[in-house]
Amino acid sequence: MNLFRSEEHARRWAQFNPASEEGFIALPELAAFFGTETRRHMLDADYLSAWYPKRAAERRAVLERLGKTSPFWLGTPAPA
Amino acid sequence: MFQRIMRALVETGRAPHYAELARSMHLTVPQGRQLLLDVMQAYPIGWLHPETDYIASFPPLNNLPTQYRVSVRGEQKWFAQCGFEATSVTWLFPGETVRVDAPCLDCGDSVTVEMRDGRITWVDPPGVLGHLNYGFGASRGKNHFL
């Protein structure tokens, strides 16, 4: 989960995973993905009990809104 | 304890040891250690350094230095867990400009993002983007190259 100067730079990265073609995300989308409501409460006394449990559903909603609905982004099942 | 860790990271750039946390919470040291383990279990996006009770990662910040250097008010004393979490650090410093500097893993040249209250205020170079090298979920295995 890294930042690169551009998509070309990411593709040239020695550790680039060829199976991660769909792994690019524009910076504004990334800021939205990591700027959801629960993130704004990380300093609240009840963050862990009241806000953190909502994080997964919130992330999924953002990813769906961004059109990132593949297992790659939404989470792949555990190997059998 | 969660908030004590998060606030200590914000205030000092480092996570406290469980013995320090125990003292501040009027717990015995073993109770402090157990509570730390419980917190990390409840917050599994963070982790302890393997085979220790040292907090390595407590996202969005990291106790173990990463390439994602975070500066606030011109002072660099924080590290983000990863490039993605770096865009979330802004929420720990309301009203402040949060600057993230990192080397591009391809060329080593700089990547800079500044944010304030969740808004991106500066990006250099303009084409900066995020990349997820392995999909999310249980099958992704180890957190490669966070």
Low-confidence stretches of chain A: none
Strands of the widest sheet of chain B, in order across it, are 5-4-6-7-8
- 3D shape of chain B: globular
Radius of gyration of chain A: 15 Å
Topology pattern of chain B, helix = H, strand = E: HHHEEEEEHEEEE
Mean residue pLDDT of chain B: 93
Structural class of chain A: mainly alpha
Identify low-pLDDT runs of chain B. Answer: none
Structure description:
The complex is a heterodimer of chains A (80) and B (146). Chain A is mostly helical and 80 residues long. In chain A, 41% of the residues lie in helices and 8% in strands. Chain A contains five helices and two strands. Chain A has helices at residues 7-12, 27-33, 47-51, 55-65, 71-74; strands at 2-4, 24-26. The model of chain A has no long low-confidence stretch (mean pLDDT 92). With 146 residues, chain B is of the alpha+beta class. Chain B folds into two domains: 2-56, no CATH class; 69-124, no CATH class. Helices cover 25% and strands 27% of the residues of chain B. Chain B has helices spanning 2-12, 18-24, 29-42, 83-86, and strands spanning 47-48, 55-58, 61-62, 69-72, 75-79, 97-103, 110-116, 119-124, 129-131. In chain B, α2 (18-24) crosses α3. The longest helix of chain B is centred in the first third of the chain and has 14 residues, at 29-42. The model of chain B has no long low-confidence stretch (mean pLDDT 93). Classes of the chains: A mainly alpha (80), B alpha+beta (146). At the A-B interface, β1, α1, β2, α2 and α5 of A face α1, α4, β7, β8 and β9 of B.
Topology overview:
The complex is a heterodimer of chains A (80) and B (146).
Chain A: E1 2-4, H1 7-12, E2 24-26, H2 27-33, H3 47-51, H4 55-65, H5 71-74
Chain B: H1 2-12, H2 18-24, H3 29-42, E1 47-48, E2 55-58, E3 61-62, E4 69-72, E5 75-79, H4 83-86, E6 97-103, E7 110-116, E8 119-124, E9 129-131
Antiparallel strand pairs in B: 1-2, 2-3, 4-5, 4-6, 6-7, 7-8
